[in-house]
Every structure is written in structure tokens, then in C-alpha cells.
Write a structure and sequence with these properties.
82% helix; mainly alpha
């Protein structure tokens, strides 16, 4: 495999993992609201695992892209014929909030799992009141960033 092949194809894999995490998170929420704690646990642990794999491949993509192009990031198009200014501003607004919140997700998710595994359900519920929407937002906006950068305005 070449660096260029990885640089070109890993975004599709990581976006699929992000979408999968989104679905797993939603299923985890549905199951806990239905009182199915065991199924909730399975879906949330799968979401954590998928998100962990996403992170590893995302970082590997940065390396592959750097090796192939000398840049660790693909730039959003500046040509108004490709992407209007409104799309670019929307993209950067989504990207900024996505990146800032994404940095918190591993810590929040791991802490939530720790609390649940220790049986500290009250503390777990307090944390996930904030952690879950952040994680869901990051997963959904990750897919949106991918769509805007690699599909819609490619």
C-alpha cells in the first residue's frame, strides 16, 4: 500500500466508523430509556471501541496525508466556483466546534464507563447528561465535516 492510497481512502473508513458510532450511541440511548441496561452497556462499549478505532485511523490518516502531500490536513476549497463562501464559513464553524468538543470526548467517555463499571450510577448519570450530547454532536459533525470536505465540495 502506498501513502497516497491511504491518504485517499482512510477518510471514507473513518467517516463510516463515525457514522457507526452515531448509530451505536443512539441505540445505547434507546435501550437505557427502555430499561435494558445490559443492551445499553453493550451498545455503549461498542461505541467506545468503534470511536477508539476511529481515532487511531484518523491519526494514521494524518500521517499518510503528510507523507503523500507534505500537509497533514486537506484544505477546504477557496474557489467560489467549487464552494461558496457561505459553505466555507459553515464548514469552519462546524469544524471548530467539532474539534474543540472532540478533544473532551475520550476523557468524558472513559470516565462515564469507569463510573458505570464501578456501579456509581448516580455519578454516571450526572456525567452523561453532558457527555452523551457532546459525544453525539462530535460523531454527527464528524460525518458532516467528511461530507463537506470529501463529497459535496471535493
Amino acid at each position: 500500500m502506498t501513502w497516497q492510497f491511504l491518504a485517499d481512502n482512510l477518510p471514507h473508513v473513518t467517516a463510516t466508523l463515525n457514522l457507526t458510532a452515531t448509530v451505536l450511541l443512539a441505540l445505547g440511548l434507546v435501550n437505557i430509556r427502555r430499561g435494558k441496561a445490559r443492551q445499553h452497556k453493550k451498545f455503549m462499549l461498542w461505541a467506545l471501541g468503534v470511536s477508539g478505532l476511529f481515532l487511531l485511523l484518523y491519526l494514521f490518516h494524518k500521517l499518510a496525508l503528510y507523507q503523500a502531500t507534505g500537509e497533514p490536513n486537506k484544505r477546504f476549497p477557496t474557489d467560489p466556483a467549487v464552494a461558496p463562501d457561505a459553505a466555507r464559513y459553515t464548514y469552519y464553524g462546524i469544524l471548530l466546534t467539532h474539534l474543540l468538543l472532540a478533544m473532551t470526548v475520550p476523557f468524558l467517555a472513559l470516565r462515564a464507563v469507569y463510573l458505570a463499571m464501578k456501579g456509581r450510577i448516580v455519578a454516571h448519570k450526572k456525567l452523561v447528561k453532558y457527555a452523551y450530547p457532546i459525544w453525539m454532536y462530535v460523531s454527527v459533525t464528524g460525518v458532516l465535516v467528511y461530507l463537506m470536505l470529501y463529497q459535496i465540495y471535493a
